[in-house]
């Protein structure tokens, strides 16, 4: 199974994001995960479309934009224009999930849905044929550096089984508490897109951190 690594710049040095993204580009990252937080849906506040637009000028890496905001319908065009390649919205933040996902796709972008640890899969089951990816939060959203919530592995397994049963082709992404051990558990459960923030950026050698995660997964294929 080909696994994609998506380092989250939530844990990067915000005073030097341009160079932080450049480091990812040189270190073998497959995507850049960009967490947008509004201080309402989650307590924290991070960056918005103008910052993403500035970063877009400096890299060709795939921008995986994760909107942790209420009323995401109001902001879609801004993030499309900023250079997002994928936009992920939380199922918990909108009353019209199907319409919102299709609206994102109408711009030629990938559209994905995220669910919090306590949110059941049944809330998104009807749009699994529409989405490009399902993001399973493996920590409660809002802050980096949290411990992995192990009961989320069952949701990953259930999504993987449902994908096979229904013939869907969405990817399964995980975000939160990822390290050399939890990445193996997530991949075994069926995840193939791995978001890692603290593990990557709190390591003195970003390239080595990414390499170690990839090596952990590669052992499963032997």
Automatic annotation (TrEMBL):
Pathway: Carbohydrate degradation
Membrane-spanning ranges: none
Gene3D superfamilies documented for this protein: Aldolase class I (3.20.20.70)
GO terms, molecular function: D-ribulose-phosphate 3-epimerase activity
EC numbers for this chain: 5.1.3.1
Lineage summary: Bacteria, Bacillati, Bacillota, Bacillota incertae sedis, Caldicellulosiruptorales
Name of the molecule in the record: Ribulose-phosphate 3-epimerase
Protein origin, superkingdom: Bacteria
CDD domains named among the record's database cross-references: RPE
Keyword Isomerase on entry: yes
Entry's family note: Belongs to the ribulose-phosphate 3-epimerase family.
Reactions catalysed, as given in the entry: D-ribulose 5-phosphate = D-xylulose 5-phosphate
Required cofactor names: Zn(2+); Fe(2+); Co(2+); Mn(2+)
Entry binding sites for substrate: 8, 66, 175-177, 197-198
Cofactor note: Binds 1 divalent metal cation per subunit.
Residues bound to a divalent metal cation: 33, 35, 66, 175
SUPFAM superfamilies assigned to the protein according to its UniProt record, in alphabetical order: Ribulose-phoshate binding barrel (SSF51366)
Residues at the catalytic site: 35, 175
